[in-house]
């Protein structure tokens, strides 16, 4: 597989100016997250009365977490579960569809294959939000709006994943291997599931990870599709709490710590996933970038 | 990929072999792409067709849905609110995207020189906002900008100044641009950095032997090598910024007088459909926005394609 850090023969002298510049940039990008951690540890009074970028004496993080998880009969946990459910089913299903089709487009020639592939690629251009209202109209027509299907089904379509999977198949599945398997009498589908899928594992993981992030972060689609708060993913739920807090003005001090702590709780899984799966998303991006 | 080159060399032979087997395998090919294509047609083509049809009608209190032909589109083309919104997202694009891509390029080039310390840490630090949902990014920045307990306001107050009102009419677009910058610079940086890593280092060494400095190498070798990757980043940025929705929609509750119902075209379509119940017109507005985005993307591709054609 591709390695992102290839050995450099020369060992040049480090530049302090460049290092300081990059550290300053990293500080800017990490600042809001640091603020989030600090703010999550404060009571609503301290939030207003103490300096935002440092901890106050009263460490209130665990109380805030408890309050977040118990607000509205524990609806936050329900949102977390919904998010997980939507993200995992949509990303898993979408990655499988993309792998199957990427393999089909790469290793088989059939009538209309080029046209179909170009049409799907062209679809990358169509703005997803311009598609969301039409999708809502169809789903409400067939009575599937305000159900989990309204989030999962549209998220299964992943044109960019298809493109990536095709690139992966071309780079990592040799024709000779397929021929050998055919001579052994394996059926085309058995070849795919027992031989090809294993070779595609890194590419599959990349597509899966990006689809996971995409669905996890999705806001517009669930916002328009769902009415029932029990079905909300975290993004829509937190936005709703924020809306309530803002609408109530100064008297809503109690909801603000929940929005902040809920935000912190919901980004932790993704940040951890990105840190642990670095190898995958980096090699995936290499593949995507090089192909262009 | 490290082995795309070897793959390309092997292609002609593989292709003839494939040609012979064509008939037998065509059916299997259809079977592999069918699940994707079916979902694609149902979730992509069908809604577009349905909405296109839907946009030709108008809901009336008396008589229900009436066919009105292209009336919704003529209304959209003359709709000042829509075009103000489109002009606003175009301005947003013109300000935000160049800054973001130049910063991403600078970070990628700086990392690629290998001259900085703590490379891994800085790269991850710059990238990590990509893992934060746009909604949460906006909520956080909303608090940070805020006049009540935002640290900027607190710092300004501590030294006896008043902080700029980030949520005012004049600064709002810039404040939104900062949020989008924060979210996506790292993503673009990683794409560009990945593309740089796939350039052979021999060429840098040859240039260095010829006496080229880092600046010269960056300008004359690395940036030209990034043309393709930059074009991809650009296309994604065109699509993303013209569709701007999450950030202004969430900021609306903090600054209701600044962000109106038609602040961006997408917000307008959303409000038409779900506040005003004007679904037919909202569908037409979505199409007009989609056309503007397609036109922008294709114009960009056409321009770069012509320039790079050998």
UniProtKB/TrEMBL annotation, chain A:
Family annotation (CDD domains): TM_PBP2
Pfam families: BPD_transp_1
Record-annotated ABC transmembrane type-1 domain positions: 80-277
Topology of this chain in the membrane: Multi-pass membrane protein
Transmembrane spans: 16-38, 84-105, 117-137, 149-169, 189-213, 255-277
Keywords assigned by UniProt, alphabetized: Cell membrane, Membrane, Transmembrane, Transmembrane helix, Transport
Gene3D superfamilies in the cross-refs: MetI-like (1.10.3720.10)
Compartment list: Cell membrane
Family membership noted in the UniProt record: Belongs to the binding-protein-dependent transport system permease family.
The protein's name: Carbohydrate ABC transporter permease
Organism: Glycomyces niveus
Organism lineage: Bacteria, Bacillati, Actinomycetota, Actinomycetes, Glycomycetales
UniProtKB/TrEMBL annotation, chain B:
Transmembrane segments: 27-53, 86-111, 123-144, 171-196, 225-245, 281-303
Membrane protein topology class: Multi-pass membrane protein
Residue ranges of every copy of the ABC transmembrane type-1 domain listed in the record: 86-300
UniProt entry tagged with the keyword Amino-acid biosynthesis: no
Record CDD domains: TM_PBP2
Location in or out of the cell: Cell membrane
Swiss-Prot/TrEMBL keywords: Cell membrane, Membrane, Transmembrane, Transmembrane helix, Transport
Pfam families: BPD_transp_1
Predominant location category: membrane
InterPro entries recorded: ABC_transporter_permease, MetI-like, MetI-like_sf
Family per similarity comment: Belongs to the binding-protein-dependent transport system permease family.
Name this polypeptide is given: Sugar ABC transporter permease
Organism: Glycomyces niveus
């Amino acid at each position: 597989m591709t390695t992102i850090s290839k050995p450099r023969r020369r060992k040049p002298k480090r530049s302090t100016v460049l290092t300081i510049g990059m550290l300053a940039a990293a500080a800017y990008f990490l600042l809001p997250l640091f603020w989030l951690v600090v703010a999550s540890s404060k009571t609503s009074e301290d939030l207003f009365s103490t300096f935002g970028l440092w901890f106050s004496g009263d460490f209130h993080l665990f109380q805030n977490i408890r309050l977040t998880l118990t607000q509205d009969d524990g609806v936050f946990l329900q949102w977390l579960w919904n998010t997980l459910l939507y993200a995992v089913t949509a990303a898993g299903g979408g990655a499988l569809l993309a792998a199957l089709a990427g393999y089909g487009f790469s290793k088989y020639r059939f009538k209309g294959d080029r046209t179909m592939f170009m049409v799907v690629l062209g679809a990358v251009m169509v703005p997803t939000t311009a598609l969301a209202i039409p999708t809502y109209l169809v789903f409400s027509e067939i009575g599937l709006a305000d159900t989990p299907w309204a989030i999962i089904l549209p998220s299964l379509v992943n044109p960019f994943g298809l493109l990536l999977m095709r690139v992966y198949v071309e780079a990592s599945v040799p024709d000779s291997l397929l021929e050998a398997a055919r001579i052994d009498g394996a059926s085309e589908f058995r070849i795919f599931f027992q031989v090809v899928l294993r070779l595609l594992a890194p590419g599959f993981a990349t597509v899966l990870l990006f689809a996971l992030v995409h669905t996890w972060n999705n806001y517009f689609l669930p916002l328009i599709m769902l009415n029932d708060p029990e079905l909300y993913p975290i993004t829509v739920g937190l936005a709703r709490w924020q809306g309530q807090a803002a609408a109530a003005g100064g008297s809503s001090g109690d909801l603000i710590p929940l929005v902040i702590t809920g935000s912190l709780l919901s980004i932790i899984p993704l940040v951890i996933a990105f840190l642990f799966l670095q190898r995958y998303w980096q090699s995936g991006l290499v593949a995507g970038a090089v192909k262009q | 990929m490290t082995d795309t080159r070897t793959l390309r060399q092997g292609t002609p032979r593989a292709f003839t072999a494939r040609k012979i087997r064509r008939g037998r395998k065509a059916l299997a090919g259809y079977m592999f792409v069918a699940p994707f294509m079916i979902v694609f047609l149902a979730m992509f083509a069908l809604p577009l067709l349905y909405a296109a049809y839907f946009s030709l009608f108008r809901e009336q209190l008396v008589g229900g849905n009436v066919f009105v032909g292209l009336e919704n589109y003529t209304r959209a083309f003359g709709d000042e609110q829509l075009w103000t919104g489109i002009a606003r997202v175009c301005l947003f694009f013109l300000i935000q995207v160049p800054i973001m891509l130049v910063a991403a390029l600078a970070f990628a080039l700086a990392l690629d020189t290998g001259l900085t310390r703590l490379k891994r840490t800085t790269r991850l630090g710059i990238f990590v906002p990509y893992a934060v949902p746009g909604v949460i990014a906006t909520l956080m920045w909303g608090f940070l900008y805020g006049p009540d307990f935002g640290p900027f306001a607190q710092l300004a107050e501590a030294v006896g100044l008043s902080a700029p009102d980030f949520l005012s009419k004049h600064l709002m677009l810039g404040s939104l641009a900062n949020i989008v910058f924060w979210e996506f610079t790292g993503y673009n940086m990683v794409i560009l950095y990945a593309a740089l890593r796939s350039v052979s280092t021999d060429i840098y060494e040859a240039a260095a032997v010829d006496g080229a400095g880092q600046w010269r190498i960056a300008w004359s070798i690395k940036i030209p090598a990034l043309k393709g990757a930059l074009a991809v980043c650009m296309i994604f940025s065109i699509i993303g910024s013209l569709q701007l929705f999450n950030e202004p929609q969430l900021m609306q509750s903090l600054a209701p007088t600044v962000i109106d119902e038609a602040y961006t075209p997408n917000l307008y379509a959303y409000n038409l459909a779900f506040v005003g119940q004007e679904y037919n017109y909202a569908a037409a507005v979505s199409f007009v926005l989609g056309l503007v985005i397609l036109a922008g993307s294709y114009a960009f591709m056409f321009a770069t394609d012509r320039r790079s054609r050998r």
